[in-house]
Design brief:
Number of strands: 13
Distance between the termini: 19 Å
Number of helices: 10
Radius of gyration: 19 Å
Strand content: 15-25%
Mean pLDDT: 95
Largest sheet: 8 strands, parallel
Structural class: alpha/beta
Strand order of the largest sheet: 4-5-6-7-8-9-10-11
Low-confidence stretches: none
Shape: globular
Length: 321
């Protein structure tokens, strides 16, 4: 079994800003696994928030043994970007060997398109209103927040896109007091969800407070081991393959979260269609799908995912799975 890791850079259509900083390109790692004449591939996005770099994730992958399977992988690498790319490459390899699609191998029903959020990056209220108006035809908009001046931004987006459903992502930028103060106003403006309002290590303050606006765990939820720490704090979990360490754990987390009564959001880092492809399977039936990474790019993989009025469509075999 041969494993290769390459670095790929995709230009963004415009500068993308969140409360932690801005970027103009997406830097990803592409993993290819060749065995028996077949090659499967997967993509990950190392994230500095989780102390990941292109170098550190590459090193994790290159230290894997010469041969292993997908079950063994779950204990060879921790949850995170490295395991994600390898896990998804193994799913793709298995599909190509068997001549079946990944959803068949996983025992899932055939997938269909899912409406996805489109993210408006953090900017001045005026520019965010302009961006919202440009994308007002989209049924679901996501706003990046997490600053002391968030309400004018939300007001501006609502004015620019009066008919869209809106969710917001505070990226750990608020306190419990700020959430409690903003929540009624966000509800008034038709916001239906807020992601990670408090820092992951300081979210105990969410316990027991009134949550008129549902709160979604993002940085606080990585894999099934995260679930006990979410009790009483969150209503929804945001499942991302780069956090769970691949589709295998993501499917298990989705089932466990559902069993415990959580709503499910399926999100992504800013990556190419290859990174989104496995997540489309995971997003089937989710309360919120946020797989807009390729929509933010100026360039993509040779056989990209299809996005249209019906949403993001499942991948073609030439892309993945």
């Amino acid at each position: 079994m041969e494993i290769s890791v390459t670095r790929d850079t995709f230009r963004l259509a415009q500068v993308f800003t969140i409360s932690r900083g801005s970027r103009s390109e997406a830097k990803v790692l592409t993993v290819r696994i060749t065995d028996g004449g077949f090659t499967g591939w997967g993509e990950c996005v190392p994230y500095a928030r989780y102390d990941e770099t292109l170098d550190s994730v590459t090193e994790q992958i290159e230290e894997l043994p010469a041969r292993f399977d997908r079950v063994e992988l779950q204990t060879l690498l921790p949850a995170g970007a490295a395991r994600n790319a390898v896990d998804c490459a193994l799913w793709d390899l298995e599909a190509k060997r068997s001549g079946k699609r990944v959803w068949e191998l996983a025992g899932l029903p055939a997938p269909g398109p899912e409406i996805t959020a489109y993210t408006l990056s953090l900017d001045t209220p005026e520019k965010m209103r302009t961006g919202a108006a440009k994308h007002a035809h989209r049924p679901l908009l996501k706003i990046k927040l997490g600053t002391p001046d968030d309400m004018p931004r939300v007001e501006a987006v609502r004015a620019g896109a009066p008919g869209a459903r809106i969710i917001v992502d505070a990226n750990e930028g608020w306190s419990a007091e700020v959430y409690a103060d903003l929540a009624p106003h966000l509800v008034r403006l038709g916001v239906s969800l807020v992601e990670q309002p408090l820092p992951a290590g300081q979210d105990e303050a969410l316990c027991g407070i009134d949550r008129p606006l549902p709160v979604c765990a993002d940085e606080s939820c990585h894999d099934r081991e995260s679930l006990p720490g979410l009790t009483g704090k969150y209503d929804v979990v945001n499942i991302k393959l780069d956090k769970t360490g691949g589709l295998t754990e993501a499917l298990a987390l989705r089932a466990a979260a559902r069993a415990e009564g959580y709503g499910v959001m399926v999100g992504c880092m800013v990556g190419s269609s290859l990174a989104m492809a496995p997540a489309v399977l995971l997003a089937q039936g989710a309360e919120v799908t946020d797989l807009d990474g390729p929509l933010l790019l100026a360039e993509d993989r040779p056989v990209p995912l299809v996005y249209d009025a019906a949403g993001v469509h499942p991948p073609e075999p030439a892309l993945w799975g």
